[in-house]
């Protein structure tokens, strides 16, 4: 069994695990705090101590790996499962609450994975929930979406996520683009709440997305017709409420100034076109939260574009993906040479130089890198290396997310 050596007590990297909270990578202060909490577990007058200890232990680096599960180092590094980005030993922190304490709206990171089969990160997509007045609005639905929601609900106590994620609130989904990895969780979004909470109030789902989302939702509804009808007409005789979803296409000719596509008492949502590979229609969504006037932008996947800059103009936070440039030769896709990989992958994803341009031209206050395509050799792999590339490029006020984080 192969294990990484524990890290020394090194200073916190700018912008990453801190905000004055925990020092994640093996600090003496963290060990003392965990020790105090462990001793407090013996004190029955402090029933929350055990929970707090577990949360701290999850947030701390361990000598073995994130979950202390068995791990066998692969000998064949050319398979889809071999990338060190999938190894549990590099998943060395738990969820963090980074949300502003003076703001009522929250952004919950549900899935921070990429398309690689990492069993320790859900996604792979920009799977997030904007929570305003205890009501959620979801952006993208990657692999394991409902399990990601279940994990996130148990990870934070800043708000009552158990109540926020009630089945009656599962209604609005916004898809940035129609790649499989950002929408494969749609059947789970629609049918799992309906099937396994059929005795609770249900909401009919509305899925906003690029042109073609209406046809896609019609096909999903048809594909699960037998499953749905059995529940309605079998032993449970469940009502039809909440059993299907409607796809609402964003007008394909959205200009650089964006278009208002949704508004209620909590949020105003505007769509902006973006560039992601050769898809004709992809969108960033700009949420303005009405109770506390936060501007939160969700860019999905994509490279630099003037329209993404417009979407992020003077926003509080841009949630976006990022990818390594320095280590792109290790990417398992995109071509046979580094030059070809730069051209192909750069048409789809955000290199550090692109991120710098977006930040400089938009004036966005901060950036949260929701997923990072981090390619490297096992010997040199570091979970934060893409994050460090961004800093080296001059990107400021940037954070790297993990599943269950709050912003």
What does this structure look like?
Helix 10 packs across helix 11 (385-393). The chain has a seven-stranded mixed β-sheet. Strands 1-2-3-4-5-6 form a six-stranded mixed β-sheet. It is globular. The protein folds into two domains: 1-6 and 28-81, no CATH class; 93-400, 4-Layer Sandwich (Metallo-beta-lactamase, Chain A), CATH 3.60.15. It has helices spanning 28-40, 49-59, 145-153, 161-164, 186-196, 213-223, 225-233, 306-311, 338-346, 352-362, 385-393, and strands spanning 106-111, 127-132, 135-139, 172-174, 205-209, 245-249, 259-263, 267-273, 283-289, 295-298, 317-323, 366-373, 398-400. The two termini are 36 Å apart. It is built from eleven helices and 13 strands. Mean pLDDT is 83; it is low at 1-47 and 61-65. 25% of the residues lie in helices and 17% in strands. With 407 residues, it is α/β, with parallel strands linked by helices.
* N-end to C-end Cα span: 36 Å
Q: Would you report the number of β strands?
A: 13
Radius of gyration from the alpha-carbon trace, in angstroms: 21 Å
**Share of residues in strands:** 15-25%
Q: Could you name the CATH topology of the largest domain?
A: Metallo-beta-lactamase, Chain A
Count of all domains? 2
Order of helices and strands: HHEEEHHEHEHHEEEEEHEHHEHE
Broad structural category? alpha/beta
- Helical fraction equals 25-40%
The CATH homologous superfamily of the largest domain: Ribonuclease Z/Hydroxyacylglutathione hydrolase-like
CATH class descriptor of the largest domain: Alpha Beta
Can you count the helices? 11
Could you tell me the mean pLDDT? Answer: 83
Overall 3D form: globular
CATH architecture annotation name of the largest domain:
4-Layer Sandwich
Strand order of the largest sheet: 7-8-9-10-11-12-13
Poorly predicted runs: 1-47, 61-65
